[in-house]
Amino acid sequence: xxxxxxGDTSAFESLYQKHKGGLYRYFVRQIGDLQxxxxxxxxTWGRVIKAASSYETSAKFTTWLYxxxxxxxxxxxxxxxxxxxxxxxxTEEQDADSLLPSDTQAPDTQFExxxxxxxxxxxxxxxxxxxxxxxxxxxxGGFTAGGIAEVVxxxxxxxxxxxxxxxxxxxxxxxxxxxxVENER
Length: 185
Description:
The protein is mainly alpha-helical. It has helices spanning 2-5, 9-31, 34-51, 61-79, 92-98, 107-126, 129-139, 145-152, 156-184.
């Protein structure tokens, strides 16, 4: 980012290529609305570009980037508080695509993995927003608890608690849902 702030546009391209996938997934999984996720994703990169000239290395770039994303998400949620935007993060069409047969797996194995993936996505969607965010930043973003605490602006202990409760809730939810599937067979 320091190189980009000094006019090196190839440095921005490198940052963008490195972080685009994780940042986009962060928005999609938090919101569930693909168009809104795209808008917030673009707004985040727009703010990165605008802040380039005043960028100061006070934290890792990734922490700074996700802090911008987190703040945009919070601003959006506050603006539309009556609507629960944190619902199922994937459309039916996307779920159906993930269940298409592949050449590398037996149909039974692939079906079972597709069901497990759908159960996990459903259980993640049921988590409280703060737990879901901490879990996704940890699992998908690769952030440590300390990094998440910086991004979200809470204490390290609160972050650890959110991750722990999210994992406990996910484990219980997936086990219960999987038992329901097994009992239906």
